[in-house]
């Protein structure tokens, strides 16, 4: 993430479908179906246009596909984080929120919230960690556990969109 953006929007527009998917596959967790489908929306006039096109695909998907996208996200301070097996993007994002420097008691608190949230909604809690610190994330758990499942799907997709934009900014010069 510290190397700076690698591509211009014009360069992104010239990529083959396979190269486009390979270059942008990291902007979403899980299989790159959103990126693959958005390729046909070229040319992208700007980073914001590309982001809007990607999000349009995400929001237009059937609910089952949206939930699968949410489920592709790792738990915050979950098993993958503790084992060091997160994607590089997720590792850096959780570290930016200070989630790599927690006490044993804080890890237990996150574990409790992760479990309660998954039991209630059937998918992990998604929040843009780069825009939050641990205190805000814990407060988010407490607030959002009272929402309906449909409210949480909507909120989670909004957070996925924020994550996508930040990851695009890491890849593309505007």
TrEMBL record:
It comes from Dictyobacter formicarum. NCBIfam families: UHCUDC (TIGR03164). It holds the Pfam family OHCU_decarbox. The lineage of its organism: Bacteria, Bacillati, Chloroflexota, Ktedonobacteria, Ktedonobacterales. It catalyses: 5-hydroxy-2-oxo-4-ureido-2,5-dihydro-1H-imidazole-5-carboxylate + H(+) = (S)-allantoin + CO2. The keyword Lyase applies. Residues 13-169 form the Oxo-4-hydroxy-4-carboxy-5-ureidoimidazoline decarboxylase domain. Keywords: Decarboxylase, Lyase, Purine metabolism. Pathway: Purine metabolism; urate degradation; (S)-allantoin from urate: step 3/3. This is 2-oxo-4-hydroxy-4-carboxy-5-ureidoimidazoline decarboxylase. Its EC number is 4.1.1.97. InterPro entries: OHCU_decarboxylase, OHCU_decarboxylase-1, OHCU_decarboxylase_sf. It is an enzyme of class 4 (lyase).
